[in-house]
Write a structure and sequence with these properties.
two-stranded parallel sheet, globular, 2 strands
Length: 155
């Protein structure tokens, strides 16, 4: 489904690259989601900060070529503020651009199974804690979120 994953796999198949698939997501999610939700989605060894990620990439690059595939939203702030990393002579960037129409249809089709089920109360609590802080345990808030998700499911 995803062209960037095909590109990642082709670089891995060459044999002269160590590849990393979306390693910045853990660091990105740490800014928005609770530890409880993050721990269920990522390996314990995943970089928890952009600093850790940068160091891991640079350490691997001492021994081999490194190819990192990531999503633009998860690395935007990391890259925009790290001019030294961007300007390294051995760091190169490739941007894959998809037609938004085709990308949206592909994402919609890939998420059909997600749209048919509602999240658990624990997931809702984690999401609402991330957004609303201490007010997240409010049962009224959970009912509102649940109604919104139920309405979206009918679409």
């Amino acid at each position: 489904r995803c062209l960037s994953t095909v590109f990642l796999r082709s670089m891995h198949a060459r044999g002269d690259f160590e590849t990393m698939n979306d390693p910045a997501l853990r660091a990105y999610w740490s800014a928005f989601w609770s530890d409880r939700l993050i721990k269920s989605r990522f390996k314990e060894t995943a970089p928890k900060t952009f600093s850790e990620l940068k160091q891991e990439i640079l350490n691997k690059a001492k021994h081999t070529n490194v190819f990192v595939k990531d999503m633009s939203f998860s690395v935007e702030n990391f890259l925009l503020h790290d001019h030294d990393f961007i300007n390294k002579k051995n760091v190169h960037f490739v941007f894959l651009l998809r037609n938004p129409h085709h990308a949206t249809i592909s994402l919609y089709n890939a998420s059909k199974h997600v749209r048919k089920t509602l999240p658990t109360k624990e997931m809702l609590l984690s999401i609402s804690e991330s957004i609303f802080g201490d007010d997240a345990n409010n049962e009224d808030l959970l009912r509102i979120i649940h109604k919104i998700l139920a309405m979206r499911q009918k679409l």
